[in-house]
Amino acid sequence: QVQLVESGGGLVAPGGSLRLSCVASGSFFNHSAMSWARQAPGKELEWVSGINTGGGSTYYTDSVKGRFTISRDNAKNTLYLQLNSLKTEDTAMYYCKTDFDGTRGQGTQVTVS
User: In 72-99, which positions are buried (b, 16+ CB within 10 angstroms) versus exposed (e)?
Assistant: First the structure.
């Protein structure tokens, strides 16, 4: 069974940093590209960043390039998203997602204020 559990969100001042984690259960993780998405209140879900199975290729939406860094530790079945230079417009619920079957976690709230 595919399960994803995010953590690391919180309240941070503009310009601050957070590190989000997503722990995966199941043997799929090492064989699956992963991604982060976010949803702000009243807005649609927005893809933020993606990473391939080995971690050598990463992708970002334009609004977070240079500020966010996606990474993964396949030995720990964990996906990360380092958020730096946070802006108020980054406030959202952040979800990790696996390309294996599209499963998404329950999310972790990031509030920049």
Answer: beeeebbbbbebeebeeebbbbbbbbbe
Quick one: tokens of 96?
């990790």
Contact between 83 and 67 (Cβ < 8 Å)? yes
For residue 85, the SS3 value is coil
Q: What is the pLDDT of residues 23-69, one digit of tens each?
A: 999 889 999 999 999 999 999 999 999 999 999 999 999 999 999 99
Contacts of 64 (CB under 8 A, 6+ apart): 48, 49, 90
- 97 phi and psi angles, rounded to 5 deg: -145, 145
> What letter represents residue 84's amino acid?
N
Closest C-alpha to 108, from 66, 65, 57, 48: 48
